[in-house]
Amino acid sequence: MNHSHNPVKPRTSNQCRIWRHITLYGWPIYPRAQTQHLFKRTLTTIAGTMGSVKVTDLDTYHNVVSGANYAVFNFRDSRRRSSDTDLAYDDLASYAYSDTVAFYEVDVGDQKHISDFAKVERPTLILYKDGKEVERYSKPLPRQLEYLVSRALCGLTEIGGRF
After folding, report:
1. Which InterPro entries is this protein grouped with (predicted)?
2. pLDDT in tens, 111-151
3. Domain presence at residue 159
4. Torsional class of 119: left (φ above 0), alpha (ψ -120 to 50), beta (otherwise)
5. Side-by-side strand order, sheet with 101-107
6. What Cα–Cα distance (Å) separates residue 148 from each residue in 1, 6, 85, 111?
7. Of 7, 56, 61, 116, whose CB has the highest number of CB atoms within 10 Å?
8. How many domains does the chain divide into?
9. Domain presence at residue 138
């Protein structure tokens, strides 16, 4: 009786998928497409209590921006495919939300009055504190998002530096 079987071949470096991720204080931030199956229950539970808030009117925008806490705004176009930064933003907003940092979204296409007021024409990340714009990244990269949020979490808005 022949009990031969096909042994599992070790993966070659070409077959291995390396996950690119951002880390914020040791917490990995993976693009949602790669981790949704792993953390589906956790993300659903967390997103129900925290995460980004959609801003749809100019009064709400003014109230949030003029507040004492840090406000991270993601101006995105919902009619386009989500970028890596959008996916990282959603994941980060679902667990890095704190009593001093809040996350907000504005749809550039649908909320034209808000994006015009903020002088935003394309996907942009903006950090506000005490009614002032602290940092702005047009067409942001995930690492710029990490940098912006880590500065806000640490209260380091006076330090300069850009990517």
Report:
1. Thioredoxin-like_sf
2. 999 999 999 988 999 999 998 999 999 988 888 888 888 88
3. no
4. left
5. 53-54, 101-107, 70-76, 124-129, 132-138
6. 65, 50, 12, 23
7. 61
8. 1
9. yes
**CA angle, corner 111, sides to 109 and 117, nearest 5?**
110
| Comparison of pLDDT for 99 and 130, the residue scoring more | 130
User: Encoding tokens for residue 112?
Assistant: 């034209």
Residue 76 lies in a domain: yes
Provide the residue count of the chain: 163
Looking at the DSSP bridge assignments, the partners of residue 56 are none
Is 64 contained in some domain? Answer: yes
What is the CATH classification number for the domain harbouring 126? Answer: 3.40.30.10
Structure-token pair, residue 30: 């993976």
Per-residue model confidence as pLDDT tens digits over 31-89? 444 433 333 333 333 333 368 899 999 999 999 999 888 999 999 988 888 888 888 88
